[in-house]
Amino acid sequence: MLMSGGLRQIIRNGRKLQYRIHPFLCGEPAGGTSFHKGSKIFCRLVEERTEDRIRVEVYPEGKLGDELSAIHQVSYGGIDFARVSLATVAENGSDTEVLMLPYLYSGREHMWKVLDGPIGTGMLSDFTDQGLVGLAWFDGGARSFYTVGSPVHEPEDLRGLRIRVQDSELMAELVTALGAEPVKAVYADVYKLLDLDQADGAENNLPSYAAENHYRLANYYTLDEHSRIPELLMVSEETMKHLDEKDREVIRQCASEASAYQRQLWQNYEMDAMDMVKDAGCQIISLSQEEKQAFKKETASLWKEYFPGKEALIKEIQDAQ
Ligand code: BDP
Fold first, then answer.
1. What is the CA angle 139-280-269, rounded to 5?
2. Is the CB of 208 under 6 A from ligand 1?
3. Is the shortest distance between the CB of 144 and ligand 1 below 6 Å?
4. Angle at the Cα of 236 (from 234 to 239), degrees rounded to 5?
5. By C-alpha distance, which of 232, 194, 39 is closest to 203?
6. Distance from C-alpha of 205 to C-alpha of 214, rounded to nearest angstrom
7. Model pLDDT for residues 195-222, shown as the tens digit of each residue
8. How many beta carbons lie within 10 A of that of residue 267, not counting itself?
9. How far is residue 115's CA from residue 95's CA, in Å, rounded to a whole number?
10. What's the pLDDT tens digit per position in 126-161?
């Protein structure tokens, strides 16, 4: 009997009740990514802790649609869970979008202090107007630019280039502030855009640059580390409504354990991706602090112009070091 959306109640042997929840891991670049592994752990923990009453099935590699369509489906309960980039789910000008500001954090540890602290945990509930509940954050590392024809050493080198960005106004503005032209597209289309010369480059973390072969077309990767955009493991509000409080708590707990596991994996994935693309002959351009400052300077206007009235939140994040 179908209860609602993707939540099914299955009667086994005429008696036993079981929920079967179909989650979706959209945009998974490949089955072996840290996101995929983190999500699989989440599913396994949920099954174990509920003694198999709740089964979570994973659909990787965009099998149920791209990231935007997954978010839409989760919002009405057609899919129960998803792992998405914050850039695709944060609303324009919202508090959660502030987390993605260029050069907001001094590094990975700073970002995790914010996400694990009151700001990050509080923001997990900021998606309810979209019918979504955040369960835990995953590490998405730092994003940097990669290009096809020539390397980027300074903002000037990006001038006039067509750079693919996620479906995010803030990311489009960031690229514009650097003098480039943003090309919004879903992740699955990036290879094609580069291949068909519809974009001169893109920006992403190293594992995502490596996983979908973008590095084969765009040989230059510049470690400018302009943004840290965390990933969100989320559940449909509709799904949560149909679970009792005990099961909801189990789900939250499992998500938090899966997050701890995924972030441990993340750094190895970054290093492996780095080795892989270097072996393939890509040029990795390291930047000094001073050189990074030039990118920071060009994008600094976004802090004020894009988020009027959010100075206190930005300051609180900066101070959380
Ligand atoms: C990757 C994220 C993935 C996004 C992708 C993108 O893991 O969720 O779809 O970036 O750039 O890093 O669209």
1. 20
2. yes
3. no
4. 125
5. 194
6. 11
7. 999 999 999 999 999 988 999 999 999 9
8. 13
9. 13
10. 999 999 999 999 999 999 999 999 999 999 999 999
**Centre of ligand 1 from the C-alpha of residue 59, in Å:** 16
CA of 207 to the centre of ligand 1 (A): 10
Quick check: CB of 60 below 6 Å from ligand 1? no
Expressed in angstroms and rounded, the spacing between residue 83 Cα and the centre of ligand 1 is 10
**Pair type for strands 231-236 and 132-138:** antiparallel
CA of 2 to the centre of ligand 1 (A): 32
Length of the chain: 321
What's the CA-to-centroid distance between 12 and ligand 1, angstroms? 39
Among 25, 35, 85, which residue has the most ligand 1 atoms within 8 Å of its CB, making it the best to mutate?
85
Choosing from 204, 226, 266 the residue with most ligand 1 atoms within 8 A of its CB, the one to mutate for a pocket test is: 204
- How does pLDDT run across 256-286, given as a tens digit for each residue? 999 999 999 999 999 999 999 999 999 999 9
- Look up residue 258 and give its two tokens: 């899966």
pLDDT of 42 above 50: yes
Alpha helices by DSSP H, 77-168: 86-89, 95-98, 108-116, 118-123
**Model-level pTM?**
0.91
The whole-angstrom separation of Cα 232 and Cα 63 is: 19
